[in-house]
UniProtKB/TrEMBL annotation:
Pfam families: p450. The keyword Signal does not apply. Belongs to the cytochrome P450 family. Keywords: Monooxygenase, Oxidoreductase. The gene is LOC106820322. InterPro entries: CYP450_20A1-like, Cyt_P450, Cyt_P450_sf. This is Cytochrome P450 20A1-like.
Length: 106
């Protein structure tokens, strides 16, 4: 189980990570099941690690029924990098501003 019980007791993953970083600083590790996971809560440290791209599928396994196994969360390697580059251009602040009104109406 790793720290999954702690996540539940905290109320959410977000709340667990807030407590984790408050106790242990801007970079800390925890166990997501059997996968040791590192969480970074500092823009400076995150920038230093931005070259890390691939993520273990285990981290998103619980969301698979909701988003599907073909979701970008499960994409690694060249496929993941290509999809990220294509998708990112549609989620910039300028791009979102062009279709915000439509989304708001929907």
């Amino acid at each position: 189980e790793g720290n999954l019980t702690d996540v539940t007791q905290a109320g959410s993953l977000h709340q667990f990570l807030q407590k984790l970083h408050w106790s242990h600083g801007p970079i800390a590790s925890f166990w997501w099941g059997t996968q040791q996971t590192v969480s970074i809560a500092s823009p400076e440290l995150f920038k230093e690690h931005q070259h890390v791209f691939d993520r273990p599928a285990l981290l998103f396994k619980m969301f698979e029924p909701l988003v599907g196994s073909k979701c970008i969360q499960f994409a690694n390697g060249e496929d993941g990098r290509h999809r990220r580059a294509v998708y990112d251009q549609y989620f910039t602040a300028d791009a979102v501003a062009t279709y915000f009104d439509t989304l708001h109406r929907v």
